[in-house]
Structures are given as structure tokens and as C-alpha cells.
């Protein structure tokens, strides 16, 4: 694991779960698993949070709350869906009041499946989130240093990606022509 410049803050939100995953998330914070040794700290304030950990499916009541929490989080931010309900809607996905998994409301970066997700899997997801947060922090620092807004930076990255895809396609077409001709 690479060293982070600062400890990412983690905010846990329960969409509408049976609380099985919530208990496992709490277990991660006990001395047995000690998730804080990874350099993450808990917060209850979305404006301080860097990593959003969502458990449970998203119902009609939770949808605006999750959106609001996500929007209040500063960039860079990482979203982790913990448990099959947060990943896909789980066994309740066909229920009248369940919208689906967390990705129906906010972009999810890391999925930790399981019913309930095991503490070891949750900690692995937190490690992945921490590494992704570090990478995004470095990109964010470069963006700020260059004086770009997030939208400008994203557009620039999308254009670079489009150029790479176009170049790869052109090379593939050229090779195909050589093989056929």
C-alpha cells in the first residue's frame, strides 16, 4: 500500500438494509479487525468525508438522502457499495419500494458483495478505496495546480481517452487491411 498524504475520512450510510452488513462494518472498526490502522477515520459529516460506504438497497426515502450526501462530499471522492443489497438491490430488488443498488443513485467505484459482506472483504474494499482516493487526490492536485475546473479536467481526460481509442482502432484496421490485402 502506498502512503497517503492524509488519512481519508469514511462516512457510512445505511440505505435500507437488514443491518447485517452494518454489523459487519462495525466489526471492522473493533480491535479485532482495526480498520483505522489502514489510515481511515470515521466521520458523520459528508463535507469531511472522502469515502462513502453504502450498505443496503436504495429505497424511495434513501434516494434523495444518498444524492445529497454525495453532492456534499468534496472532490476527490470514492463510493463503496457493501453487501449484495447495495451492489444490486439484493433479494429485495423486485420490491415495490426498492430502486436498486447504490449505483442507481450515485456512481459506485468499488463493489463488495456478500450477504452479509465479511469484515475481511469490507476491509479489502476500504483498502481499494484508499488507493483509489490517493490516485484521485494526486490527479486533483495536478488539476488545481494547472488552474482547471473539474469539468475542464474531465473533458480533457475524456478527449485523451477518445484519442487513444481512435488510434487503437485505426491501428487495428491497418493491420486487418495488411492481412487481407
Detailed description of the structure:
With 181 residues, this protein is of the alpha/beta class. The chain is 46% helix and 14% strand. The chain contains five helices and seven strands; from the N terminus they run βαβββαβαββαα. The strands form two sheets. Strands 2-1-3-5-7 form a five-stranded parallel sheet. It starts with 8 loop residues before the first strand and ends with a helix. The mean pLDDT is 86.
Task: Indicate the topology.
Blueprint: E1 9-14, H1 20-28, E2 41-42, E3 51-55, E4 58-59, H2 62-72, E5 78-82, H3 84-88, E6 98-100, E7 110-112, H4 119-145, H5 150-180
Helix pairs in contact: 1-4
Summarize the structure.
This protein has 181 residues and is an alpha/beta fold. It has helices spanning 20-28, 62-72, 84-88, 119-145, 150-180; strands at 9-14, 41-42, 51-55, 58-59, 78-82, 98-100, 110-112. The strands form 2 sheets. A 5-stranded parallel β-sheet has the order 2-1-3-5-7.
Shape: globular
Distance between the termini: 50 Å
- Percentage of residues assigned to helices: 40-55%
What portion of residues belong to β-strands?
5-15%
Which descriptors would you attach to this protein?
181 residues; alpha/beta; Rossmann fold; 2 domains; 5-stranded parallel β-sheet; two-stranded antiparallel ribbon; 5 helices; 46% helix
Amino acid at each position: 500500500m502506498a502512503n497517503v498524504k492524509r488519512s481519508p475520512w469514511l462516512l457510512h450510510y445505511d440505505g435500507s438494509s437488514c443491518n447485517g452488513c452494518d454489523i459487519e462494518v462495525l466489526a471492522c472498526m473493533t480491535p479485532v479487525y482495526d480498520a483505522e490502522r489502514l489510515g481511515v477515520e470515521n466521520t458523520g459529516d459528508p463535507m469531511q468525508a472522502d469515502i462513502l460506504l453504502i450498505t443496503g438497497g436504495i429505497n424511495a426515502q434513501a434516494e434523495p438522502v444518498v444524492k445529497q450526501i454525495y453532492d456534499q462530499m468534496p472532490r476527490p471522492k470514492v463510493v463503496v457499495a457493501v453487501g449484495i443489497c447495495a451492489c444490486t438491490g439484493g433479494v429485495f430488488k423486485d420490491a415495490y419500494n426498492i430502486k436498486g443498488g447504490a449505483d442507481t443513485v450515485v456512481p459506485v467505484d468499488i463493489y463488495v458483495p456478500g450477504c452479509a459482506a465479511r469484515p475481511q472483504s469490507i476491509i479489502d474494499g476500504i483498502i481499494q478505496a484508499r488507493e483509489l482516493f490517493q490516485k484521485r487526490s494526486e490527479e486533483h492536485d495536478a488539476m488545481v495546480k494547472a488552474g482547471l475546473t473539474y469539468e475542464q479536467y474531465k473533458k480533457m481526460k475524456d478527449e485523451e481517452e477518445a484519442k487513444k481509442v481512435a488510434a487503437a482502432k485505426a491501428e487495428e484496421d491497418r493491420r486487418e487491411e495488411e492481412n487481407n490485402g
